Every structure is written in C-alpha cells, then in structure tokens.
Amino acid sequence: MNLLQTSKQNSLSLPKRLSALGLFLILPFFTMGQFAFEGPIPKITQGFGAFGNNAFTSEFFQLTPDSTYECSDTLRCIITYPTGLNSTRGTVFRFPGSSNTNMTDSNYWKESKLDREFVASLGYVSVTMQYNNANEYGCAYYLLDEAVRLYSNLIDTTRVGFHGISQGAAVTNWLSLKKYTNDGWGSNGRFAWPDAGASFIGWLDNWPQDIDVQSDSGLAAMPDDVLYLMTLSDWDQVPDPRTLIDMYNFMGVPDSNKEFMIIRGDTVNSYIYWATHFTLNSYENDSNQFNVYVTKHDALDYWMGTRLLHSLMEAAWNNDKTARRICMGNGDTLQTTIAGGQMRGPIVTDTPWMSMLHSWNSGLGFMGDCEAPWNMRQYVTADACFILDIPEVSAQTEVKMYPNPAQTNRQITFESSERIISIVVFDLLGRIQQSTTDSTLKLMHSGNYVLGITFDSGRKTALRLTVID
Asked: Which domain CATH number covers 428?
C-alpha cells in the first residue's frame, strides 16, 4: 500500500515521487492522538517544549540489506516532516534503545511518535530507524547516507542534530563524531544529545579499523561548535556512570558548548515522577527497573524531553540566546527551574562524578557496566573505567602526597607545582566523604579512598589513598 499518513489533519496522500523511489510504505493501524497524559503537572503548551503549529506527514521507508554496513536484514525507518515541505530543513536523526529491537511497525510508530512529531510540528525534519536482531550498529550509518540520498529535497545536512536513548546514545556519540568530524555535516549548526547511556558503539565487525574515532584523540576531534548535551536519570541503573563521565570528559568540545545533566524525579500530589532508564522513552509498557516503576507520558517528557530538544535545535540552528540558556546554561535558573518550580530540576555540571547519582550510591550494580564488551573505549584507552585504574601516588609526578598509607585523624600533606584548589574524597562506591580547598587533609575513618584533585587551571587528576587506624 503506497499510502502516507498525514498527522493532525488525519488525511491520506500519495505524492508522485514515491513511485520513483520504489519505497514500500504502510498505513499504520492506530489513532492519531498523543498518548494519554499522566500526573498533576500539565504539558507545556507555549514556549520551548510546546508543539508547533505545522501539520506533519510521516512515511515508513525501508533500506535493503547491505553487508558493507553490517546490515544483513531490511532496515525499517520513518521520516516525519512538515506537510507540503518543498525545501530542505534542519534534521534530527533519532536512535532508539535496544528494547526496540524487532518492534512491530505499529509499536515503533508509537515509541518514536512524540519526538518525531514534535520536531516536525516546529518546521523541521525527523528521521529514525528500528533495530533488527540481524543488524548491527553500522546500519545507523547506512541510514544516514541513504536517507539523505532518498530525501535530498527535505534533509539539510548543514543543520543536523543527533539524539539517542540508551543504546541509541552510544550510536549518537559514534555517528556525531563520524559525520561532524569526517564528513563536515552541520556546518550551519549541529548538536549531539546522548541520553541514558554512553558506551562506545561503532563498527563491531571491523572496530580495529574504526579505532581512530574511539580513542582519546578521536573524541577530542569533535568540532568545537557542536552543542553536546549528555543526560542521565538519577535512578538509572542500566548504564555505568563511569562510561558517561569518560565520554563526556574526553569529548573535544569546550565547556561553554558542553553540558552534563542529571534528571531527577519527584513526587507531586502523590504522583511519582520516576527518573529511571525509561524516563524520556514515552512509549514503554509499565515495567520495573530494580523495583522502580516507569510512567508512560508525563511532565518529565516535556520539561526534560521536548523542551531540551527544542532548545538544542533553536540554539544550534538559529543562535537563539534564550534557547542556549536552557540547553547550555551552565546551571542557569532557566535551565534548572522546571514546571515553575513545582518539581525538582536537574543537576547540571561540567565536572560529573558518580556520587552525584542516587543509583550509584544505592550500590545495586549496573546492567551495562563499563567493562561490557560493546564499550570499545576500554580497548583503546587505559582510563575508560577510571575508578578501577586510578594511579598509585608513586606513579604520579605532578603531585606528592604523604604519608600514604596515612593514619586516622593525622594530617596528610599535598605538594604540587600547580596550585591545588580542591580535593574531594570518595569511597570506592563513589560517595563523597569529605572535601577541602586546603593542601592538607585529615580523615577520621580507616579505609581505601579515591581523591579527586582539581588544579587552578581546571585540570584534574586522581589518587588512591589508604588510611589505617
């Protein structure tokens, strides 16, 4: 059935160009409205995060198998764009999590509906893809090139954004480096937003040939003008925070264009806004993650979802200063005050650490730990899983710390050629035990600790310390 579905107007059309493309399109079997909204705090209806006024059209299209991209099965994709669009527009490429593998067309339509229809309602283009068990992550690279070839009249490769959730976050990191660094995409505005997971995923079969992107210098090559937003929910126990912190710290974007944001849930009028792995995945069957239940569609999908996406598009593509305060505000009150202050805002930092996340402090472990085989960073750098590889003080040439081992309630002294402005003491679960701005320290309890040291220049290092009674 070569049919299109035009949202908002609930009508069908059949552009003549489709027959020339040889695309197979289906008529989805579901209603057009957004999902039932839950919770006492209403949707955003105006300003950043509110749907725009453009009617939009969505099309399924498929890509044939191509083993050179590690795609051994047909790839199913959706493009959503303003109805009647006859010129290229800024485009968001969205990549789902692994929970979407082998979803039916109907379910994937629902899963991707909120984000892609939101983008198109504002006058831009959204492109997304499904995963199949037979396909590997190179398929996402394949999608980019083929979508641009098929829809060159709609997609503007000079204004591009990548947005991914969970496994899609890892794909977002990889593809933004590939396309922005190697192919020059986004010359008129670009952003990357990995949410809820940042293990490095690239070519799985040929990853040694892809090593240049996955190394420290490869990450450092990200163009300075990319707006890079990394988000993780407070109770998310799927990705290991070390992988996110590693990627964030090495990503070669200045702090002014880079933000690490921890999404926090809250309880309002007995309604719980869960901050878990699925917080911004607005179509998920109600399920539990370590006894924490997720919701389908509520204010967090707007205040921490559409609002951030909207601000990234406008800041990157139109240099909107207010939008920049929301997505790159460095703790601006416009960024951290959400829902008019009715619920807790996010933690925003340029120096993330595990102790900032409730999930790490709970000590229950992580499904996708730093040493997971698909986190290729661990194969190309010794520091990817840094909490396991903090150097001993004897290996440090920049800082002298003595004595080590130290005794409880006895002074520990630090000497450095560069002024130390802060020392933060963490236990081995990443919980902050103490902090100081002096070059001396006393600890009351015996144990093994990690010291996070920040120098006057902003440079950081870490040391191991043992304290005995």
From this structure: 2.60.40.1930
Q: What is the pLDDT of residues 135-157, one digit of tens each?
A: 678 889 999 999 999 999 999 99
Let me know if 453 is exposed, middle or buried by CB neighbors in 10 A (0-12, 13-18, 19+). buried
- Boundary (domain end) residue, out of 361, 378, 407: 361
Residue 100 belongs to domain spanning = 5-361
Number of domains in the chain: 2
Q: Are residues 125 and 175 in the same domain?
A: yes
Strands 412-416 and 440-441, by their bridges, are: antiparallel
Question: What residues of the chain score a pLDDT lower than 50?
Answer: 1-32, 286, 290-291, 387-390
CATH value at residue 324: 3.40.50.1820
Query: Can you give the pLDDT at residue 357?
Result: 85
Pull the structure tokens for residue 86.
């006859």
The pLDDT value given to residue 369: 81
Smallest CA-to-CA distance from 266 within 360, 345, 359 is with: 345
Based on the fold, state whether residues 322 and 464 are members of the same structural domain: no
Residue 174 in domain: yes
**Residue 406 domain-assigned?**
yes
Q: Is 291 helix (H, G, I), strand (E, B) or coil?
A: coil
Which three-class secondary structure string do you get for 88-109?
CEEEEEEECCHHHCCCCHHHHH
Backbone angles phi, psi at 467, to 5 degrees: -120, 130
Residue with tokens 């869960």: 274
Whole-angstrom distance, CA of residue 194 vs CA of residue 222? 14
CB proximity list for 12: less than 8 A, separation 6 or greater: 3, 4, 5, 6, 27
User: 220 with 142, same domain?
Assistant: yes
Q: State the number of CA atoms in the 13 A half-sphere of 209 facing the CB.
A: 4
In this structure, are 208 and 296 located in the same domain? yes
Whether residues 142 and 214 share a domain: the answer is yes
Q: Would the pTM count as exceeding 0.85?
A: no
The upper half-sphere exposure of residue 261, i.e. CA atoms within 13 Å in the direction of its Cβ, equals 28
Task: Evaluate whether residue 379 is within a structural domain.
Answer: no
* pLDDT of amino acid 293: 52
HSE on the CB side for 399, CA within 13 Å? Answer: 28
What pLDDT is stored for residue 299 in this prediction? 95
Token match 């996010």: residue? 346
pLDDT at 364: 67
pLDDT of 382: 65
The first and second tokens of residue 245, run together, are 């912190």
Using CB atoms within 10 Å of the CB of residue 339, give its burial: 0 to 12 exposed, 13 to 18 middle, 19+ buried.
Answer: buried
